[in-house]
């Protein structure tokens, strides 16, 4: 039970106890609001029972109203008792209001039907309630009480729906704004990419000119100056692209990116994390471009991370094989990847495939009887 529910329960219990006291005083003083004759003891017991039922009026409004009606009808069917305003009719009004205010769906309408059946029963069985004035009074008051509870319920529901819609609109607007920013950044990045590509092309042309005119010192000096100026501008544009695409929480330093030389340290980290990992280097190592060197490292890193997170593997073997013009990377584990769930290693596979595709390679994953295998083939020396 929440703290708010506990507060409501305490408040309703206090109101019920107060009404019990008023009902006893109303019957035994007695007050002018008492109508009819009958056993005061039985009337007191009925009034106390009706008032105490109001303790749970918020949590079970229809059940509370139904219990009050059944209790009244049962007692009046056996023997007459005094009719009380504060001890009987007022608790009925509270129960009617509660079922209209807190009843969900059909329960609110059902509560109105139960209250109407109650009034009809008393109009037929209790003499003091059969006068036209009395009938108009208790029917009108009961209808107004139910209508007020129902109106407040509808108002609260509409307010909650409006708040929900406003929240959804705000969230959608925020997403649209973020998407617009992302689209604009992508457009700017494409434009800067074209500029950088043009600058690099100019540098290549200048370098070729300097090579052809190696004997002319003035031409060589001018070409080198143009290369330096163009390269400086290209680097500045590249920094703008990186700064623009970097997320606000990306605080990584500008330290050198890892490569094949860092694989032993990566294997040691995997072993320290509880995954028995072995590194195998096959073939004559090739000199890899920086970007391709980083791609190989990231593929191995992501494959080992997925193995630790998404399988129960106890060991893994990382194989880097150099062949003529290609480097092959294989990460095989003995985990549950072979259970027929190709996505069991998470969404990191998408990133690995993207890295392989970026350098003209391919990446495949297979489930074998002994575990899960990630195999990537990357060409070396391909100009993109």
What does this structure look like?
- There is one protein chain.
- The chain has 384 residues and is of the alpha+beta class.
- The protein has 3 domains: 3-130, no CATH class; 174-245; 260-379, Heat Shock Protein 90, CATH 3.30.565.
- Helix content is 65%, strand content 11%.
- The protein has 10 helices and 7 strands.
- The protein has helices spanning 3-28, 40-53, 61-78, 85-102, 106-125, 132-212, 217-245, 263-272, 290-310, 348-358; strands at 34-35, 83-84, 276-282, 315-323, 326-333, 362-368, 371-379.
- The strands form 2 sheets. Strands 3-4-5-7-6 form a 5-stranded mixed sheet. Strands 1-2 form a two-stranded antiparallel sheet.
- Helix 1 (3-28) runs antiparallel to helix 4 and helix 3 (61-78) packs parallel to helix 5.
- The radius of gyration is 41 Å and the shape is elongated.
Q: How are the elements arranged and paired?
A:
Layout: H1 3-28, E1 34-35, H2 40-53, H3 61-78, E2 83-84, H4 85-102, H5 106-125, H6 132-212, H7 217-245, H8 263-272, E3 276-282, H9 290-310, E4 315-323, E5 326-333, H10 348-358, E6 362-368, E7 371-379
Parallel strand pairs: 3-4
Antiparallel strand pairs: 1-2, 4-5, 5-7, 6-7
Helix pairs in contact: 1-2, 1-4, 2-3, 2-4, 3-4, 3-5, 4-5, 4-6, 5-6, 6-7, 9-10
């Amino acid at each position: 039970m929440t703290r708010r529910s506990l507060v409501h329960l305490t408040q309703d219990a206090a109101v019920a106890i107060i009404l019990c006291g008023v009902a006893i005083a109303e019957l035994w003083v007695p007050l002018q609001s008492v109508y009819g004759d009958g056993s005061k003891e039985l009337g007191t017991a009925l009034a106390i029972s009706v008032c105490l039922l109001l303790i749970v009026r918020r949590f079970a409004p229809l059940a509370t109203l139904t219990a009050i009606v059944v209790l009244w009808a049962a007692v009046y069917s056996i023997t007459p008792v005094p009719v009380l305003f504060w001890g009987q009719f007022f608790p009925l009004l509270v129960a009617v209001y509660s079922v209209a205010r807190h009843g969900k769906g059909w329960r609110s309408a059902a509560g109105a039907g139960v209250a109407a059946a109650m009034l009809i029963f008393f109009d037929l069985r209790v003499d003091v309630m059969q006068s036209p004035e009395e009938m108009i009074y208790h029917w009108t008051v009961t209808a107004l009480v139910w209508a007020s509870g129902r109106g407040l319920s509808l108002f609260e529901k509409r307010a909650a729906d409006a708040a929900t819609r406003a929240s959804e609109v705000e969230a959608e607007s925020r997403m649209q704004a973020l998407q617009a920013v992302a689209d604009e950044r992508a457009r700017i990045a494409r434009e800067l990419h074209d500029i950088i590509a043009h600058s690099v092309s100019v540098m290549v042309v200048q370098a070729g000119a300097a090579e052809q005119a190696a004997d002319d010192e003035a031409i060589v000096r001018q070409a080198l100056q143009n290369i330096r100026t163009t390269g400086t501008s290209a680097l500045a544009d590249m920094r703008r692209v990186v700064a623009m695409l970097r997320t606000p929480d990306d605080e990584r330093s500008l330290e050198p990116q890892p490569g094949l030389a860092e694989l032993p340290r990566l294997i040691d980290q995997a072993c320290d994390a509880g995954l028995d990992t072995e590194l195998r280097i096959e073939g004559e190592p090739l000199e890899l471009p920086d970007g391709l060197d980083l791609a190989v490292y990231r593929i191995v890193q992501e494959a080992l991370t997925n193995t630790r997170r998404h399988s129960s593997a106890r060991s893994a073997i990382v194989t880097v094989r150099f062949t003529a013009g290609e480097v092959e990377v294989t990460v095989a584990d003995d985990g549950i990847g072979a259970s027929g769930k190709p996505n069991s290693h998470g969404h990191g596979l998408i990133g690995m495939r993207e890295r392989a595709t970026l350098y003209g390679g391919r990446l495949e994953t297979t489930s074998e009887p002994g575990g899960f295998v990630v195999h990537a083939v990357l060409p070396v020396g391909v100009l993109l």
